[in-house]
Amino acid sequence: MTEPLIVVPLDGSELSEGALPYAVALAKATGARLLLVTTWAGADGELLAALPDVTKDLSQRATQYYQEYLAGVAERTKAKGIEVETSVCIGHAADEVLRVLAERDPRLLVMATHGRSGLSRWLYGSVAGELVREAPVPTLAVGPRVLEAQAGDASIHRILVPLDGSPLSEAALPPAIELAQKLGASMTLAQVIQIAAQAFAFGVPEAYIPEIDQKMVEAAEAYLKRVVDGLRTKVPVDTVVLRGAPADALLSLVDAQQIDLVVMASRSRAGLARAFLGSVADRMLQGAAPVLLIRPEE
């Protein structure tokens, strides 16, 4: 049986390599091998036509440079007991990575949301943003706070799964449980509710607000209990009901409980492309834990 494959795009920067500790941790836990991929744009068409010999030499030198770069990273990674292969592609970075994903059908894409351009350039419109929106496989995105703090090996002991009561959000549960079992991690299931004054746009009598708040909390607690009862797993699972804006509440929980990994479902690729900016998933990438995005159709 062929080992599952994890693809890790790199651009030659230390920031992009910040995703490697997580790829290694997951590869060890799941018995996967890694495919390290880097791309370069290739020679300009006009230059190729005008100076074919020069551009041929440039292409050979660039390919050799990136092959040697990936070979060095691969050797360091193999020293951790992981099987590693490499691939140098020529073309638009996101397109080439998507092509590799389509051809190799990996189990997971693991990537840093920032690379050579640095932390001053945020995700929107970048290669990472395009891959998060378009990748046809579950994607572990390692955001800027994690990249800045990452040092040494990655340890995953606490996994957070945000739920909103929908079947879509619950699609994150099976992969989260599988990872928790293989990593020996615990899980926290969280649901965020608004306070009554925010939830009812046209207002309610003040006398009813505390009662409505309490009923909303009780309903959320009952929902989370039903979910836990249906999991049938030996993984330690606790639950928490949060109040306020979903992304803010979840980011605070990540900090307070020192969450190591967030596993959450997102819309289909088409839906995510339309709703990505400003979404909860997008905001979570700014937190202190990497985010594994699961799409139900995957």
**Count of individual beta strands:** 10
Shape: elongated
Give average pLDDT, whole number: 84
Give the CATH class of the largest domain. Answer: Alpha Beta
First and last CA, distance: 21 Å
The CATH superfamily of the largest domain is HUPs
Largest sheet: 10 strands, mixed
CATH architecture level-2 label of the largest domain: 3-Layer(aba) Sandwich
Order of helices and strands: EHEHHEHEHEHEHHEHHEHEHHE
How many distinct helices? Answer: 13
Q: Order of strands in the sheet with the most strands?
A: 3-2-1-4-5-10-9-6-7-8
What report would you give on this structure?
- The chain is of the alpha/beta class.
- It has 2 domains: 5-149, Rossmann fold (3-Layer(aba) Sandwich); 158-294, 3-Layer(aba) Sandwich (Rossmann fold).
- It is built from 13 helices and 10 strands.
- It has helices spanning 20-30, 45-50, 52-78, 93-104, 127-134, 144-149, 167-170, 173-183, 196-199, 209-229, 246-256, 269-275, 280-284, and strands at 5-9, 33-40, 84-90, 108-112, 139-142, 158-163, 186-193, 237-243, 261-265, 291-294.
- A 10-stranded mixed sheet has the order 3-2-1-4-5-10-9-6-7-8, with helices on both faces.
